[in-house]
């Protein structure tokens, strides 16, 4: 049995922290540009991350051009190098911080001093002035500023935008990450990680709690397509996996101070997947390796090697099993957790693959979406492909399971609302939103709304009237 997320009051991290399955309730099944759109917001910048939802707010990360932020914030990149500061609340520092010296490669190690500085500032933007200019700048050759924007979930008004100067300005295009890692939110703060190496915690009013330049400390992500792995969390800690075209690492960080609890060095392993946090473990599927590590120490419990193509879609974890998706034929596999015995339960049918979108589970089946826009249903006991279904366009966003329905969100703005029947996937409705030259990067349920994020816009879809639902 999979955990089912409410999402009526919170969707706190990538995939809701679980598997994109939410409790059954009445939400819009039909919408378009002129129907069931509750609000639409133009962001002061461009990004590819999935939003998160908490404390009544939608939190979105994005990149912006540096000239505008410099009017409101200090250049934290230079300040961090010159005079790193201590946490504002010294008592909040992790008790474990600094207790251990650097360990051997691949072993957990305690460690570093918090890299706080006066880098961010909350900017109120109720009137939308200068947004068009900022968006135009963001479409230029360099993404030199990064930001977090809070949108009120009910009204669609921008509450604030906290901006900071990127430590590592880079060019932007649709296949190179641009504020791609999704943030996390809890009842205290929102936490955002950027491929520039910047990691920041803000309270719900947009005030900086702490900042670290992880890229300077531990190495910037390297690769042709940038970085896409998202932060994950539990009540006390953040977890950051950086697998890239260079020596990688897995970090556990204290939420209150930003201090390192432990660090595991990793071999070069290019990947964009996001780990899954369970009650006591971290599950990682990343370019040739699937493994479980102890959440408290970082020690490896078990590993399965030899899988190919597990570089983008994230694993699906339930009970004592891990589904490790792959974009290569005959590589997706179900793995048994535990300390002993054969781990690989089955290898999936060769025709079933997963590309950008991560897998979901519905009615005893794993649902995968391939790069060729083919959705497949796998029998969870055997890995046999039970059906396949051609979607109208490619999907980068992970599907959402809502009761008996499965929502597929195409990059083009089309959404296919489907249900599972004995014969396979059955289409119920197709909805279209205009996205121009952008793409749909992430969709989450928030209360009674679907929150749909493109590069520079966030749209809320809700069942506003019986007439709108039937249109």
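Sequence proposed for the structure above (471 residues):
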């Amino acid at each position: 049995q999979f955990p089912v997320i409410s999402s009526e009051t919170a969707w706190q991290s990538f995939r809701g922290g679980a598997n994109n399955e939410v409790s059954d309730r009445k939400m819009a099944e039909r919408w378009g540009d002129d129907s069931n759109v509750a609000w639409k917001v133009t962001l002061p910048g461009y990004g590819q991350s999935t939003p998160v939802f908490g404390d009544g707010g939608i939190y979105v990360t994005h990149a912006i051009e540096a000239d505008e932020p410099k009017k409101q914030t200090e250049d934290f990149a230079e300040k961090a190098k010159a005079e790193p500061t201590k946490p504002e609340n010294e008592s909040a520092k992790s008790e474990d911080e600094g207790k251990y010296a650097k360990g051997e490669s691949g072993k957990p190690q305690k460690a570093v001093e918090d890299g706080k500085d006066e880098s961010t500032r909350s900017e109120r933007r109720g009137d939308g002035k200068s947004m068009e200019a900022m968006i135009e700048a963001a479409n230029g050759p360099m993404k030199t500023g990064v930001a977090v924007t809070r949108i009120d979930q009910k009204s669609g008004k921008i509450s604030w935008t906290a901006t900071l100067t990127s430590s590592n300005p880079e060019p932007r295009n649709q296949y190179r990450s641009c504020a791609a890692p999704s943030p996390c939110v809890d009842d205290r703060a929102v936490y955002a990680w950027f491929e520039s190496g910047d990691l920041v915690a803000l309270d719900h009013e947009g005030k900086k709690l702490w900042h670290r330049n992880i890229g300077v400390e531990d190495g910037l992500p390297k690769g042709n397509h940038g970085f896409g792995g998202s932060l994950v969390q539990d009540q006390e800690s953040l977890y950051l996996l950086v697998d890239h075209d260079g020596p990688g690492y897995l970090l556990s960080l204290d939420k209150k101070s930003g201090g390192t609890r432990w660090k595991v060095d990793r071999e070069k392993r290019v990947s964009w997947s996001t780990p899954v946090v369970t009650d006591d473990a971290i599950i990682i599927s990343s370019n040739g390796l699937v493994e479980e590590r102890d959440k408290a120490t970082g020690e490896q419990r078990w590993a399965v090697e030899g899988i190919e193509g597990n570089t983008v879609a994230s694993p699906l974890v339930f009970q004592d099993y891990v589904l490790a998706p792959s974009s290569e034929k005959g590589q997706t596999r179900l793995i048994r957790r535990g300390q002993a015995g054969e781990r690989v339960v089955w290898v999936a049918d060769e025709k079933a693959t997963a590309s950008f979108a991560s897998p979901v589970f519905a009615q005893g089946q794993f649902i995968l979406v391939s790069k060729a826009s083919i959705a497949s249903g796998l029998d969870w006991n055997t890995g046999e492909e039970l059906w396949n279904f051609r979607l109208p366009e490619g999907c980068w966003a992970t599907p959402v399971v809502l009761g008996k329905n499965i929502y597929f969100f195409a990059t083009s703005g089309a959404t296919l609302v489907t249900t599972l029947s004995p014969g396979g996937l059955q289409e119920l409705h197709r909805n279209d939103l205009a996205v121009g030259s952008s793409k749909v990067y992430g969709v989450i349920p928030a209360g009674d709304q679907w929150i749909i994020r493109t590069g520079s816009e966030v749209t809320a879809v809700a069942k506003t009237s019986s007439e709108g639902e039937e249109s």
